[in-house]
Amino acid sequence: MEEKITCPLVDDLISPVDCMENQALREESIPEKFKKKENWKEVCKNCKYQEY
Asked: SS3 for 5?
């Protein structure tokens, strides 16, 4: 079973690979579901998984 982490951008479990990809992608390539919160960039930057 694949490990999951809780992403504060979607308040749900996601794959660590999705997390790492979102950190590496250009903003326009990040799926919309991760950009719904007003301050999503700051939430992502301050996430405990940023150095995952």
From this structure: strand
Q: What's this model's pTM, rounded to 2 decimal places? A: 0.86
Where are the alpha helices (H) located in 1-52, listed in sequence order? 16-24, 40-45
Extract the tokens encoding 49. Answer: 């998984």
Residue 4 DSSP label: -
Cβ atoms of 44 and 50 closer than 8 Å: yes
27 in helix, strand or coil?
A: helix
The mean pLDDT values, 10 residues at a time, for the chain of 52 residues are: 93 96 94 97 95 74
